[in-house]
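Folds vary. Our protein:
___
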Amino acid sequence: MDTKAAKTKQDKIDKINADAKAKRDKKNAKEIADQAARDNKAVEDYMNFLQAKEDLENVYFESLLTQQQQEENAVADKYFALIEQAKQYGEDITVLEQAQQHEINEIKKKFAKEDLERQQAVEDAKIGLAIDGVDALINLTSAFAKDNEKSQRRAFEINKKLQIAQAIMQTYQGANAIFASAAANPTTVLFPAQPFIAAGIAIANGLANVVNISKQQFQTSSPGGAGQQTPSFGGGGGGGGTPPTLQPANTSTLVPQQQTQVFVTETDITSTQNSVAVIQGQATF
């Protein structure tokens, strides 16, 4: 084979090799591009996953916070960016910090008031239940008293103790209600002692009512008469075996009771309920 023919053959081989290499390079480039696209998609998916995970975690952690904490955090977030920008620009941040603290303090005041009102409502409900329980015991004591004087005298004494306990609870309830009402009155700014004076008057009136109840005495319908008499109370006459009823002292001096804003402690209520339980246990005729 001459030199020219050999060169022609080699050129063909080189071209074939070059074409093959070009195809391989093109294929490899496509594979690299496809792989890069897949990698980018995987990174994007992972970033989306992390963001979704963070969002859900934030929602969960937010749900664990109280409403007060959520509102305080919202205020902190609102001022954070402004304060940071002011620092970057060398601006004074004093007013921004004062405004932020003012809003947070207002939130704390609002929730402190709401929390107190909830506590007062719960305490008022407890006192109301205790008073209703005493009413029920008074009715039962009267209903199950026998016709003989001994049984009715015992019923009288038990009801007397029950009504004293009830009057004490009503005194606390009324005093606390008027204290809260007076404290909410704008005039207390000029006369801060007003709520304490009003509550003190209510307590004095209530305790006077307790004293009046304690002074009541068991009486028969015909004192000094012969034979068994049906007892009556407050000077009234009785007959036909009517069970004794204790006439409560005048309660018009007690302040009106409100549905909320009660400051009686749970210890006060528990103590009174325990006393009522002791009285109930003694109610055997």
